[in-house]
Design brief:
single chain, five-stranded mixed sheet, alpha+beta, flat
Length: 276
Amino acid sequence: MNNKHHALWAVTALLIVFLAILIWRVFIDPTPRAIAPDGQVATTTAPAAAAIEPIHIKDSGRYYEIDASYPSATPLRETAGLDADADAVALMKSFEVNTIEGFKEANNLGSMTPEQFAEFSFGRDVSFAMTIDYKLIESPKTISYSYAIYQDTLGAHPNTYYRTFTFDRQTGENIHLDELFAPGMPYLERLSSRTRADLPAIMAKMAGIRADEVDRGNIESGTLPIADAFQNFVIDAGTLRVIFPPYQVGPYAFGTLEVPIPLTDLRDILSPQYRP
């Protein structure tokens, strides 16, 4: 009889200990837990940051359709602050609004008559069109946005143009081409000679011909050592990418051409804060 009482007390004591541990785990232990589908304990993780969504500007009329987009925010909000982020977004939005208005005004889209439209369309069921899309390109010290502006003015073919923005990650400042380089450095001459040297091989590979068969006339005229020739650029990781839209350095068939130049090749003329 004594043995049965001892066994009963032992079982009761174990049950009390088990219940005490269970209560502590549920109500006192602060470690968050979730039960995975297979029954195992899964640790919880913080939700990922929300993706930056584009904002669209849509405009349409009887003879045209326009769809442009720009980012609702930039990575500058994390590195340079909310004011710098807001300034960058406002700058890019202003560019798009002005580009759209310029497109409509240049083509008389606000007051075009059916007779005028017929002269452009030759009776086709088409319309003037513009789209503006962007890409974000990041590097350790900068962020860049490359905007592709597609315009169809009912000519032989549509045209594509570019507008780029590069911002300093720490200050949020919009960096112009000359500000990448140290004062007094011949950066335009260096960019001119480098792109003239690299473009024939790039174009030859696209066309399936030898580099010495590429017509260098357009290359020479499109890479003069002037700021306008190199206004479209982004910094991609450790590379300066110079963007040439159709026609600038070759026939339309070549489309958009890019020349990548490692920043290490420009280190001697770069501004100290942008040296690799």
